Structures are given as structure tokens and as C-alpha cells.
Amino acid sequence: MREEKVTYCRICEPLCGMIATVEDDRLIELRPDKQHPLSKGFACPKGIAFAEIVNDPDRVLHPLRKTADGGFEQISWETALTEIRAKLRAVYDRHGKSGIGWYFGNPATFSTGHTMWTATFTTLLGTPHVYSAGSQDVNNRFAASHFLYGNPVAAPIPDINRVDYLVIMGANPIVSHGSVMSSPRIRDGLKAIEARGGRVVVVDPRRTETAREFEWLPIVPDTDTLLLLALLHVMFDEGLADEHRITKQASGIETLKRVVARFAPEDVADRTDVPAETIRDMARTLVTTERAAIYGRIGTSLGRTGTLTTALLDIVNLVAGNLDTVGGSMFGDLGVPGERLGISALQRFPGFTWAGRRSRVGDLPQVLGTAPASVMAKEMTTPGTGQLRALFVSAGNPVLSVPNGAELSSALDGLDLMVSLDIYRNETNAHADYILPATTMYERGDFLLPFQMLFTTPFRQATDPVISPRGEAREEWTVVTELMGAIGRRSPLIGALHALDVASAKLGARWTPERLSDLVVRISQGGNRFGLRRGGLTYRRLVEENPHGVIVADHLTPGRLRKLITHRDRRVCLDAPEILAELDRLEPVEDPRLPLRLIGLREIRSENSWQHNAPLLLRGGRRHAARMHPDDARQRGIGEGDLVTVRSAYGQIELPVTITDEMKAGVVAIPHGWGHNGSGGWTRANAAAATDLGSGGANVNALISSDPEDLERLAGMANMTGVPIEVSLLDTGADTGDRSESAASGVG
Ligand SMILES: Nc1nc2c(c(=O)[nH]1)N[C@H]1C(S)=C(S)[C@@H](COP(=O)(O)OP(=O)(O)OC[C@H]3O[C@@H](n4cnc5c(=O)[nH]c(N)nc54)[C@H](O)[C@@H]3O)O[C@H]1N2
Ligand SMILES: Nc1nc2c(c(=O)[nH]1)N[C@H]1C(S)=C(S)[C@@H](COP(=O)(O)OP(=O)(O)OC[C@H]3O[C@@H](n4cnc5c(=O)[nH]c(N)nc54)[C@H](O)[C@@H]3O)O[C@H]1N2
Ligand code: SF4
Ligand SMILES: [Mo]
To answer: Which residues form the 4Fe-4S Mo/W bis-MGD-type domain (predicted)?
Structure first.
């Protein structure tokens, strides 16, 4: 029987509404949900193509075990879990809790059960070895919020619906669909700003898909910090800032003024390549436009001083009078009573704060309990107490997504135990002892806790699974429960929780992700408050009576800031010494042998590394290429489509070039997530992007440093943008004499 089920997409942050066509428990087709109150019939190609991923013949549908010849054989869940449990106990007995680690990747965030259960397990276990995609993504957002607000999870989002002047810095929402912000139909949202007479300015080294539709302001990569400091300079220097208001809202204004006095627009114009007058104009417009905001994302997070840059984005909003105000940069909330007290209490636990622990290798701070993934390989290979010996990787592909995949690959091979929970075989779990089949999003129900506070229009939606798990796939949280059982005798906290779980299951009242989510739905805005509010929401009511979701408020609420700040004086801290110390790192890195600058690029038909196997997304042929400016290409004798070598101080890759004036001269953009080398099970991804070099594209993260010295100090983030590189024609070592010789000798 054919049925249509209302659900929503959980690949990226807008969480667009979807209608799933299901026949005999098979997902036949997905189409956008016209009745979804926010996405209103929009879905992107990745969302639509997801039916191909659910039904992909390359999916892992049964537990797999590594064979002696390096391949995999199918085994039963029973066997897999029995063996994993025994090996886990052995590692625990030899190395203690610190011998066990977990890396969870980006898709984990899109499953409440997955995140909450792994976080509970690793927190109770007390291992320092928790890693995630966050240290290549968003951890400095949490670190910045820790210093500014004393609350790492307070993240302001632009009030897209009401803003009249929006500066987008280092984000490409028309392709990425928005990040640290859930704003379905973001293109329409941005277009509407112009339609009401407003402006959108995109600060980016590349004339991106977003920049093309609005005003483009090119900038030298990794110099946004300077631009932001200069904006603040102008606001104080020209007397634009309302110092009285700022003093009420924030502490440390005098120090801030002293610091930014050194950064006049005229002083930073050369380094940023943004004209001084343009900077002055932007500062004035941010202050004088009643509803204005500046918003930054990956491009401002992956530089050398990402925590400082991220903090400055909020500080610019604050000084301009745009933080926590209508049409500015606002704070979403769940509307849960006692939120601030809860956050304060949680911060006593290392997993819920900044620098709750520091890494053994590199002495870098953990952010919300996760350590920098860049040091994960060295944590496996550096002997001594606390050496990582057993690793679980769930929904992640760090061999491609983290710097220096080659180092990580060989470190993984040396582990006593490596277990992957994934829907595919990928370049990372090629090194696993066991691969356990996970469900895709449509095989599980969900209400996504982490995103509720990030909707630009406060919204709630929950869904049931639309089909049963395919093959023998299981939800990750159920596997975590098994692991808890395995070491319950050794780890008393885990043992206690596991006993509770077993007992409640016997009573038919097992603690599940749905129960947890239900609790949150009930106590938050619009919830039924356990019967106190008649007709209020519950999880079941969301699924059954409001399948397309519910808008719980037309707009974000201003004046939330004081409720989120946990500093004693309830003011934003503008002069945290840790943040100010980062100002010492603004000196440029200059190496004449590496004159170009590398930046990243997200493609509309890719999601990081894992959607290169869907025929719909590969249609028309896909090519992994480096984009470079015509002048840079000409100087190097490089023509369209030529194969080139790209070198940094850390490594080199080969790939074709696309020449385009959408690049700022001197900057080269290369998408990440490629470099499928046949070790994964993605047959079409491995064959895609075929060139004379082979296929599957190149791993851009081979150019990025995993040396702890090179990581950003406050969040341990990898420096993936603005990295010095040089590009030369492949196999023509003799073409450019001195320059290419010295470039070649400059890479180890
Ligand atoms: N150079 C450079 N590197 C980057 C970035 C960059 O901009 N430039 N961006 C960084 C960012 S922002 C991110 S988020 C990371 C991503 O880094 P990762 O999260 O490490 O990698 P992904 O490519 O997202 O791989 C996700 C894996 O999860 C699997 N998967 C998908 N759905 C599920 C599921 O429901 N359950 C389970 N168990 N598995 C599932 C997929 O098959 C895939 O193997 O990459 C980072 N790396
Ligand atoms: N189609 C698609 N959508 C995605 C993803 C995907 O892989 N594909 N990934 C998802 C994930 S994991 C995330 S985290 C989000 C990220 O969401 P976004 O941050 O919007 O993602 P990007 O498209 O990488 O945008 C970053 C922009 O920063 C620019 N940039 C690079 N360096 C600098 C710099 O130094 N300064 C400035 N000002 N700009 C710079 C780049 O040119 C790029 O346009 O996207 C999500 N959405
Ligand atoms: S933008 Fe595309 S991938 Fe992201 S949630 Fe919407 S449909 Fe899914
Ligand atoms: Mo990400």
C-alpha cells in the first residue's frame, strides 16, 4: 500500500519539511512539504536525493568484521556485540577509562538519541578522549560565548525576518542553507530584506552564490579580525557608540576602546584589502540603521584566531546597539523556566564548560567536553598514561574531514579496537575492526533538541520514523546502551545508569530519546507544562496533531540577554584576558614560496564527504577542482582544466583547476570532503570526479596542519582558511625556475 507521510529533513540546519512516499515499508520518494509553515514547499537537491541514500545498495545493513586480508565479513549483531564488549573490557582493564575514546561526526548532531546517549556515556565514563566535527566547525562559537556571556551555548542569530542591514561574513547561506541558525527558505528571507528597502553585504574572498545576489565585499582570507576591530575603532572614534548603554549592557568598555584605538581603518586597509572608507561606511550603517546585524560562520571560524573573531562579531553587534534587539542579532530560547540557573549548575561539569579539561597532547582546552580532533592521531600514537587505545567513530569521516588524514589513518590501524557506527563504509571505517549499521534519519523518529533555540522563527516539529530500519540497522543510542552494560561493573556511574535502564525497560517505561524530547516539549514554550497549560504541546501531540510543525511565536524575543548571562554582574564581558591575548597572533604569516591563500568551498550537491554516492547528486558529471583567479593562473602558465599540484607547508595534493574571476586574486578555493580513494564502500563516489589522476577527488585536508602548535589556542580549532599555498602545473617541476624550486624545497 502506498502512503504519504509527513516528516522533515535532517541533513542540514533548516530542517525542511518533507513528504515521504512509502510503499510496503519502503521509502519510494521524497518531495518538499508545501504545508510546512516555514519551508513552504522548499527542499534542496540533497534533501530530495535522500531516498537514494536510504535505498543505496552500498549501504551497510549488517554488522561487519574486519578479516585477515583487510576486507570485511558479515557477522550477527550478537557476535559483534559480544566481541566488542569483551575487547572494550580488556582495554579498560589495561588502560583505564582514558584508553577509550569517541569521535562523533556532523550527522550525529541531527539525532537527539545519538548525541544525548553518546554524551551521557562519555561523560559518565570520564574519558578525556571525546572528539567531534566541532573542532573543525563551531567550537570557537561556544568558546567565545563562554567568555562573553559565561554561557557557552548562548549563540546569537540574525533576526532575518526583521533586519534591514545585514552583513554576512564568511558564510554562504544560499548554498549551505544557513548555519548556527535554522532559517528555512533563507534565500527568500535574504531577498525580502532588499524588498523592504534594506541591504545585504557579503564579505567573502569569493564572489559566492550569495554574494552574487547581493553586494559583494571581497576580503583577504583570515583578516576579518582586523576588519571587525576597525569597525569598532570607527564606532568609538566617530562617537557613534552609545557608551552609556554599552556600560549598562557590558563590562570592559575602557579596555576595549584602548585596544581598538590601534586599528584605524586606514591601518588595516592594506592587510584586508578593504578600503578604509568602505569600513567607515559599514560601521556607520551598522550603528545608524535601526535594525542591523553582522553574522559570521565557517569563514570566520576557521582562521588562526577564530575565537577572537567570533567574539568580535558579537561585540560589533553589541557596540552598534544591535545585540539582543529587534532586527539585530538575537537569542533564541526554549522558554524553559530557570534556564540560567540550569546552565550555571551544569557548568560545574567538565563536559558543559570551556576548558573543563585540557588535552594530554598539545595542552589545548576542551570545549563542551570535546577535545581538538586534530590531536586525536597523536593521542593514539603517543605512549604513556592516557594513551587512546579504543575508538568509536559514529557518523563521522575524520580521515577526510580532519587535518592530516594520512597520519590519522595509520594511527587508527595501530589501535587495539576501532568500532564505527555508520550507514556507509567510508575512508575512516576502512580502518575499523567492526562496522555497525546505523539507521538513516527516516528510520528513526526525532525532535531535534540542539536546533530549537536557533530557529529565526521559533518553531517545533517532531516526526515518527517513516519506515522501519532497513536490514539490521539500529539506532546509535541502543548500541551505546549495550556498551554501558559492558563496562557497568568497572565504572560505577555507568553501572548505576545501566541498572536503571534495565529496570525501567522491565517495567515497560524505558528512558528513550522520545521520552527525553517529550519532557523538553512539555516544559518549553508552547508546551503543556504537564497539564498546567491546557491544549499545550507534547511530543505525541506534535507528531499526531501537528505533523507539519508549529510556529510557537511569530518572532524572536528581545531582552533575553540578561537571562542567559551567568557572569555575576549580568553583563557581557568585553575584556576577557584570554580573548585579548589572541591579539598577539594577528601578525601575518608570510612565506614568499607560498604566496597564495587557500579557502574552502561548499557545493550545493555535496554534504561534507558523504553524499557523493547518490546518482541524482552526481548527475551531469562532477569534478573536484581548485578555483583560481585568471591572473594567478596566467602567471603560472595554468589553463582551464589543467592538472595542478597544490602545496602547503604541510602537504600536497593534485587536482584539476577551474579558472574564474569569482575568486579574489591571490586566493584559491578547494571543496573539502573529496579524496575518496577506494578504501570506502562508495562505488559511485569512488568513480566520480574522474580525471587522469584517478577518481574520487583529492583530500584538501592533506594541506592542513594537525600540529598542536598550529591549532587555535582557545578552541583547538584547525586552521583551514587563509593557509599559505602555491599552485603549479603537474609534472612540470622545471617550468618556473627559482620559484617552483624553492616551493618544492619548502615542503617536507
Ligand atoms: N578543509 C575543510 N575541512 C572541513 C570543513 C571545511 O570547511 N573545510 N568543514 C568541517 C565541518 S563544518 C564539518 S561539520 C566536518 C564534517 O566532518 P565529519 O562529520 O567527520 O564527516 P562527514 O563527511 O560529515 O561524514 C559523516 C559520516 O556520517 C555518516 N552518516 C550519515 N548519516 C548518519 C546517521 O544517521 N548515523 C550514522 N551513524 N552515520 C551517518 C555518513 O555515511 C558519513 O560517513 O568537516 C569539517 N572539515
Ligand atoms: N550544500 C551544502 N550545505 C551544507 C554543507 C555542505 O557540505 N554542503 N555543510 C553543512 C555544514 S557541516 C556547515 S558547518 C555549514 C556551514 O555553513 P557556511 O558557513 O555558510 O558554509 P560555507 O559555504 O563553507 O561558507 C563559508 C564562506 O566563507 C568564505 N571564507 C573562507 N575563508 C574566509 C575568510 O577568511 N573570511 C571571510 N570573510 N570569508 C571566508 C568562503 O568563501 C565561503 O563562502 O553548511 C552546512 N550546509
Ligand atoms: S536545505 Fe536541503 S539538505 Fe538542508 S534540510 Fe533542507 S532539504 Fe534537507
Ligand atoms: Mo559543519
So the answer is: 2-58
How many of the other CB atoms lie within 10 Å of CB of 506?
A: 9
| Rounded-to-5 percentages of helix, strand, coil across the chain | 40, 20, 45
DSSP for 136-155 reads: GTTHHHHHHHHHHHS-TT--
Residues in the chain, overall count: 748
**Residue spans of alpha helices (H) in 507-661:** 513-523, 539-545, 561-564, 577-581, 615-618, 630-635
What's the CA-to-centroid distance between 299 and ligand 2, angstroms? Answer: 6
**Segments forming the whole domain that contains residue 669:** 586-743
Does the Cβ of 405 fall within 6 Å of ligand 1?
A: no
Q: Match 566547525 to its residue by C-alpha cell.
A: 137
Based on the fold, state whether residues 578 and 596 are members of the same structural domain. no
Cα–ligand 2 centroid distance for 580 (angstroms): 26
On whether the CB atoms of residues 375 and 369 are closer than 8 A, the answer is no
Cα angle 372, 375, 377; round to 5: 130
- b/e code 537-560 from CB counts within 10 Å (16+ = b): bbbebbbeebbbbbebeeebbeeb
CATH number of the domain enclosing 152? 3.40.228.10
My answer on whether 571 and 609 are in the same domain is no
Q: What is the pLDDT of residue 347?
A: 86
**Residues whose beta carbon lies within 6 Å of some atom of ligand 2:** 12, 106, 137, 169-173, 175-177, 179, 203-206, 208, 219, 221-222, 224, 297-300, 303, 599-600, 602, 604, 606-608, 721-722
Taking the centre of ligand 2 as the mean of its atom positions, its distance from the CA of residue 125, in whole angstroms, is 34
550: region left, alpha or beta (phi > 0 left; psi from -120 to 50 alpha): beta
Which has the closest alpha carbon to 739: 647, 624, 629? Answer: 647
Residues 275 and 263 in one domain: yes
Does one domain contain both 175 and 262? Answer: yes
Q: Which residue has the cell 539490521?
A: 472
Ligand nearest to the CA of 176: 2
Strands 667-669 and 596-599: parallel
Looking at the structure, tell me whether residues 577 and 668 fall in a common domain. Answer: no
Closest CA relative to residue 157, chosen from 557, 717, 448, 697: 557
Write out the H or E segment, with its range, that includes residue 104.
Answer: strand 100-104
| Ligand 1 atom closest to Cα of residue 105 | 19
Q: Is the CB of 106 under 6 A from ligand 1?
A: yes
Total structural domains in the chain?
2
> From its phi and psi, is residue 710 left (phi > 0), alpha (psi between -120 and 50) or beta?
alpha
Atom from ligand 3 closest to the CA of residue 15 = 5
Q: What is the reported pLDDT for 742? A: 35
- Give the full edge-to-edge strand order of the sheet including 26-32: 2-8, 17-23, 26-32
Ligand closest to the CA atom of residue 110: 1
Residues of the chain with pLDDT under 70: 732-748
**186, 226, 281 from 438: Cα distances, Å:** 31, 44, 52
Query: What's phi and psi for 592, nearest 5 deg?
Result: -55, -20
Task: Give the residue whose CA is nearest to atom 47 of ligand 1.
Answer: 401
Cell numbers placing 581? 591575548
Q: Which residue's C-alpha comes closest to atom 5 of ligand 3? A: 15
Look up the CATH number of the domain holding residue 703. 2.40.40.20
**Cβ proximity of 448 and 514 under 8 Å:** no
Closest approach atom of ligand 3 to CA 45: 2
Q: Are 177 and 12 in contact (CB under 8 A)?
A: yes
Contacts of 82 (CB under 8 A, 6+ apart): none
Look at the block and give the residue holding cell 578555493.
Answer: 669
**Grid coordinates standing for 147?**
567568555
Distance 136 CA to ligand 4 centre (A): 7
